[in-house]
What does this fold into?
Amino acid sequence: MKLRSLSLLILVALATVSCSYEVRPVRSHPRMMAPGGLLYALPRTEICVDVTFGHYDTTGAPFVKFAHEMLAVDKSLGGYDIRRVELSTRVVADPNFFYYVNPRRMAVQVDSRNLLRSVGIATADLGDANKASTMSADEERDYSLAGQYNLYDRTDTFYSRHDRPGNPTMVASKKDSRSLRQQALAAAERIGQLQERRQQLLNGESETSYTPEGLKVLLSLIDHQERQLQEQFLGHYTTETVRFVVDPKDEKTLIDSQTVVLFHFTPEKGIVDSTNRRAMPVYCRIQCDNKMRNAARFVKFRVGAFQNSNMNERNTFKYRSSEQASVEVFCSRFRFQKQLPIAQFGPTMELPEGKLKALFDAHTGDLIYVDY
It folds into this structure.
């Protein structure tokens, strides 16, 4: 009797050592109360489409109605255009695949998104890996703000000996008596003179010789004056970036190919409702490359976890291995394509039982290191 009890204690001890942690899906119904632990979720990839729209703001341009006539610019000035499209991914927690973990003596690290970061690693120097992948926003802004004054207003300023700088005794202004058309014509002529002067300097036809540094400064001044005058006709060019988020569906009928409408666009108004007669739809198409099809089939039918029991009920850590997909953003005017990893398109795997060390990529959720 004593020998039987001792054998039972040894078996219990071995079972406790071999399985020092518990992993349960949150949808399960364990027979016993679950002790204190933590939650983690399988990664799910969302596609971020950042579209930069460009637009000429002509509210501060007094000569805008003369722009086509005097500067030969497009009559559609003031409309919208799609300047740039950027594709990126962000990984979030899949709400349908949460797991409860009682780590016991096992070190487990979960980030702020409830995604599994490491198992069995007490102190992992991950640096910035905990931060989700974000798109770089280094937008080029080549246009300065237009002046909010009329270049043809004449101002006479009178200072006395007791006045401080910027606080004159009297400021007398007199509006230009020329018509708006005459003012626009004078500005257009000045633009032509500046352009001619630039060509003379670049071709070395100037009567005065300049050093390279002096020539650079002079050209910069000419560019600045020309830009200020042009802004009286064109206004200033502004850009705005709008992010559209697409959640790829992982149903069997949609993995191979799925297409969604991101937004509707017109050059006159920018983003519009689909009811607009001139609305142009912009689509996002996601096509799985299926490079891991054989691996997924092997996991499903040849891994021991699926032979005797449901994998979700096994007491092991689960993770996903991302599958590459071709993401295409297109409309009748442009087409942009990029390869991106999609976590929910890949197979769901499990770590070996027992003590181990594992590390996961913060940007994709993929397993990048394991030591059993």
Q: What stands out?
A: The chain has a mean pLDDT of 79.
